[in-house]
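Late entry, thiamine diphosphate complex.
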Amino acid sequence: MLNTYVVYVENKPGVLTRVASLFRRRAFNIDSLTVGRTEKPEVSRMTITVEADHDQARRIEANLYKLVNVLLVENITTVPAIVRDLAMIKVAATHEARSHVLELASVFRARVVDVAPESLIIEITGGEDKIDGLLEVLRPYGVLEMVRTGIVAMRRGNKPSATLSSLETPAQTVGDDDLSQSV
Amino acid sequence: MTRTGAQILWECLEQEGVTHVFGYPGGAILPAYDALKFSKIHHVLVRHEQGATHMADGYARASGRVGVAVATSGPGATNMVTGIATAMLDSSPIVCITGQVGSKLIGSDAFQETDITGITLPITKHNYLVTRADELARTMREAFYVARSGRPGPVLVDITKDAQQALCEFDWEAAKPQLPGYRPDLSPAPKEYEKALELIHNSKRPVILLGHGAIVSGAIREVRDLAERAGIPVALTLLGLGALPASHPLNLGMMGMHGEAWVNHTIQEADLLIALGMRFDDRVTGNLKTYAPNAKKIHVEIDPCEINKNVKVDVALVGDLREVLHAMLPKIESIDRSDWLDLIDRLKGDSAVRDIQNLPDSGHLYAAHVINDLWREARGSNTVVVTDVGQHQMWEAQYYKHEEPRSLITSGGLGTMGFALPAAIGVKVARPEAEVWVVVGDGGFQMTMCELATLVQENLKINIAIINNGFLGMVRQWQEFFYERNYQATPLLNPDFAKIAGAYGIRNATVTQRSQVVPAVQSARQHDGPVLINFQVEQEDTVYPMVAAGAALHEMIRRPSPIVETAADE
Ligand SMILES: Cc1ncc(C[n+]2csc(CCOP(=O)(O)OP(=O)(O)O)c2C)c(N)n1
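Prediction complete; structure with ligand written out below:
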């Protein structure tokens, strides 16, 4: 099953390598990985999706925690969350096809961000399924180029996704169902 | 106070209680060496940087303190790789300090530039590249803290030449570690304890599997109390040897690939395994599909990553072994398990009869005899045996009865040949009052024998027993069993080891007869300098029993029965 992790790491050189190297070394296959800034300049946030069964998913989490620069790991696979991917799709759009393509884009609430005589660039944000859906209907017109950012995710509701302040309490208790720090 | 980075480095080491470092100089670390003149720290000049890492490792394992190794950039740093990996797999706390080219040159393939933090990323617990003097104090404090806390391990600190040279303010107190994501002190939830206790109290055939973690966490008393109070027999891993005295009635001995048959049978027959500070390595489990099929499993382990990695367990207590046992002991009920212990006695069967110790003196010199005689002569609460890797290592584990923790130092997880001699130097430096014996094969000895010079230069009383069988013995054994005796690349053409020792001014002897073993050991012990004894043993001798790689734990290749006849007839 595809697991989604939100991982807070120290914003320091080499941290991305450490995380990537961990997945390689333990033979876990990353499906997508995004990194970016957060509300705190000293903290970066990664969204990682990886194919893993229940047991592997726990071990991935434990291994991430073992990295000294990793602050917090949350497996949000089963919690209500907003998950978004962004794609730019350059699609062939000759005179006759253009209006069809524009129509499809609007059905998917995608935006046209570049118009050229023979092509359009469409930008779409959404869940992976939605993007897959748009891609499928555009394919017959000729997809010339496509790029996706990989997903970013955030827990729903007003509770912060993970309380970074919890970092100040050093000792942690590990229980069977306490996935946030553990086995 | 204003200091250079190099001065800060040594002062930080002193603050951490370091008295000795093992190192080798070169261009990129020269500023640090230059500043050594201001320091009380004794620098042991090694002959190869791999040796420096094993020395730091031996120092750490023998004492529980952090060992320190120093090298220059490029080849100096890459020579450390094997020693770092060795320390990583055996959870040994060492700090390796390497010089690096100037920060402006990083990435330019400058002379002797290697990306050592990149290279060692998967084989260190953590590593650092320090490019500024003002980062050095905090980094050193973090490095020591990370190395020794939680599950210990190696930490590498790569320091650019300009960071060593630059001047900055030094305030050790203020340079506190900042490790917001590092949480070494985990402890189990109360209900996990309850589950564990219930399993223990309901079990009829429990076994404790005792590993290195018991020694690292200092849980010797607690483990013994648990075994005694609950009446549970104990099987040990190679690195666990000494964590419960070999003479203890509940001590079954070593488990795994070369464990005694009854120990492995006991594990296979058990209804509960209580794994304490061990990680179900493939050398102790054999085939996982058939491993302890009827047993529930409790895993007490400090590293959450080890839980359910190889063996799926029923209860995991993640935390420091000593603390966990402390919490558990008051609730342990004493239960009579004499039926189980009787069964184990029966499992022992004819093993003792098959033992090589029962061979009459047939003129053959067996390694097992050498080691057993060494044990009879040299055993004592302050004797440390440091072994290399191979057949001799397994015979040592079988025939030297370890009573004390930290009395056997050996490379388990990585199985690093060449470990013994340099590690022993570290052991002796850490514990000068200990009697130190190196037990090493003729193959492994030649990998790091350059460190004989270090031993002499440091004036260390270390005894070296080369178990010389003229082969890469353990590999030859595999060829014998699994490759139709096709002895490719395993016979060794050896130098005269006694003469080599002589060239270093080391007292030496060559032993070929069993009757000479005890006198040679006695005379070595009496001599107040280092001694090397070349024991020329039986060439094609075999370590029994053996669980072939991938076989079930109870499917052992047993000693020929009775070995007395077969071996003596050869
Ligand atoms: C550095 C290294 N290279 C290769 C091996 C593989 N290996 C394991 S045991 C062994 C033979 C060791 O021979 P020797 O040192 O003579 O000891 P013996 O087995 O004869 O006691 C070898 C080559 C190893 N463990 N380490």
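The interface with chain B takes residues 9-10, 13-14, 17-18, 21, 25, 55, 58-59, 62-63, 65-72, 167, 170-176, 178, 181-183 of chain A (CB under 8 Å). Will revisit in the morning.
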